[in-house]
Amino acid sequence: MTPVVEADPWRPGTRPDGDAKLAGMHNTPWPRRLRVTRAAAALAGAGALALAATGCAAGEAHLVFAAPSSFADVAPKLADAYAAEHEGTRPTITLGSSAQLVQQANAGTAPDVLVTADERAPEALTDPGDYEHLGVVAANTLVLVTGDAARAHDDVAAWLPAARVALCAPDVPCGRAADAWLRESGLESAVADASLEANVRQVLSKVSSGQADAGFVYATDAAADPSLTAIPLEAEANRYPVLVGESDAARDFGSWLLGDEAQEILTDAGFEPGGGR
Fold it and tell me: N or C: which end of the chain has fewer CB within 10 A?
């Protein structure tokens, strides 16, 4: 059975447009002066990540799998592999930033299985008791991508202040990871005018399209665009927890994600082992 993908994974070169405010971000105290891009604002404001109503065949279990944007390429592969082994279960994928997925859950659109791009994101759940933490499904490392390969041979501190930089919002895991690296490197002021994106795939898209000279993304996202050069950073890897709801189908899929087959798919996609349960 074919999994249904409910949201645009924002692959390089595709970006929405509009003027709405970034939902849930307007009261966030910014650690630096950043511009919220029209595209990022429109995405959240228009509710593009909300789950759409989908039908299921008679006798078919409906399983909603909410995954972070960095799972854009691997989530369908995971859903395909699971569906092939579990007749009667149709995984429906919804993609977005971890913050947006948690906001959806808090608003009453709770997925059966939730994976976030760091272990801090689930702390914002209004009813954390609705989910059980099964373990850590994967890990991912922050890198700096650029369209200028020559920059890979130069000191980042030397060219970053003059570059057009894209970052994830500070309440998004990739934004928290970038902020931590910038603080430790003493480069917070170098990105004072960086543009702020709603999720990691929007950062990648901005660099891929030439709208930014550099952007902070995960290693797996950098691999999605071989035209860019990824500069490794000394940063602690983000760990991706898997949380499941009360249904047997949710627990079964969550446990499967921690198993050998799913872990092989994730490793092939460039993710690091998460450590499991």
Answer: C
228-267 core/surface letters (b: 16 or more CB in 10 A; e: else): bbbbebebebbbbbbbbbeeebbbbbbebbbeeebbebbe
Domain boundaries, the chain: 4-9+47-139+239-276
pTM of the full predicted structure?
Answer: 0.80
**How much is the average pLDDT of 9-24?**
35
Please answer whether residues 170 and 30 qualify as being in contact, where contact means their C-beta atoms are separated by less than 8 angstroms.
Answer: yes
Cβ proximity of 76 and 3 under 8 Å? yes
In angstroms, the CA 132 to CA 135 distance is 9
Cα separation, 147 vs 230, in Å, equals: 9
Lowest mean pLDDT, pick from 2-6, 35-39, 97-101, 242-246: 35-39
Binding site annotation covers 240? no
- Coil/strand/helix, residue 267: helix
Distance CA 179, CA 153 (A): 23
The answer to whether 125 and 95 have CB atoms below 8 angstroms apart is: no
36 is in an annotated binding site: no
Record: fold of 4-9+47-139+239-276: D-Maltodextrin-Binding Protein; domain 2 (3.40.190)
The pLDDT, as a whole number, for residue 29 is 33
For 85, the token pair is 């082994």
69 is in an annotated binding site: no
* 20-38 pLDDT tens trace: 323 333 333 333 323 333 3
Reduced to 3 states, what is the DSSP secondary structure of residue 126? coil
